[in-house]
Amino acid sequence: MKYYDDAPIETMSDDEDNMVFHYKKGSFRAHESKEVRDMAEGRVNAAPGLFKSLVSTTGNKLTFIAMIICFVVVCMLAMFSRDYSDTAGGVRFSVSAFSFEDRVYASLELKAVQGKNVYGGNYSVLLECIDNEGNVYDKYETATAYSEGMESLHWICGDYDSRNIRATVSWADGESRVLVCGITHK
After folding, report:
1. Mean pLDDT of the chain, nearest integer
2. Model confidence over 103-155: pLDDT tens digits?
3. Which helix (H) or strand (E) segment is 71 a member of?
4. Most buried pick, 13, 86, 96, 123, via CB within 10 A?
5. In whole angstroms, what is the distance from residue 53 CA to residue 47 CA?
6. pLDDT category of residue 30 using cuts at 50, 70 and 90
């Protein structure tokens, strides 16, 4: 046996396998709060309902309000954003344009829509740059064949007070789509 300040220190022998713990279950629980007693006894007091749990504390309220604000902003952006695209023959057309250093950079992308039969064939594209009065001052025309996948056409023209890019895509069978895109000035 070991001693510390003339008091014996009990040690566990190597042959003992299990330790026995003794703890009180009695009167000291009466001095604890109800939440601590419930946790010690295994009872969980969940907030009654989703909304009450979302607004039960100040931190939860702020998080809930932030989530609502983010949801509203995303919905507003989705409703008021412009999509310069159309679909014909199982192909989605989208046009975009921006102005940088006295030039307009236009792009037309063709991409097959999943689950649709794609019209693979010849098509012609006419890209026109339109000024503030509605006059066409520059245009680019090309004819090519489309196969499945994604295809991009790019065009650069001079920026003479340009306002829009008009893209006309015509298939060999006579079907055509016209897309008008505003030019973003950078």
Report:
1. 77
2. 888 888 888 777 666 666 677 888 888 887 878 888 888 887 776 677 788 88
3. helix 58-80
4. 123
5. 5
6. confident
Which tokens sit at 172?
């060999």
DSSP 8-class letter at 41: H
State which amino acid sits at residue 149: G
- The string over 97-132, giving b where at least 16 C-beta atoms fall within 10 Å of a residue's C-beta and e elsewhere, is bbbeeeebbbbbebbbeeeeebbeeebebbbbbbee
Residue 103 CA neighbour count, 13 Å, CB half: 7
Concatenate the DSSP letters of all residues of 104-168 into one string: EEEEEEEEEPTTS----SEEEEEEEEEETTS-EEEEEEEEEE--SSEEEEEEEEE-SSEEEEEEE
Q: Of 136, 114, 140, which is closest to residue 127 (Cα–Cα)?
A: 140
Of the two residues 31 and 121, the one the predictor is more confident about is: 31
User: From CA 184, how far away is CA 61, in angstroms rounded?
Assistant: 40
Give residue 27's pLDDT: 66
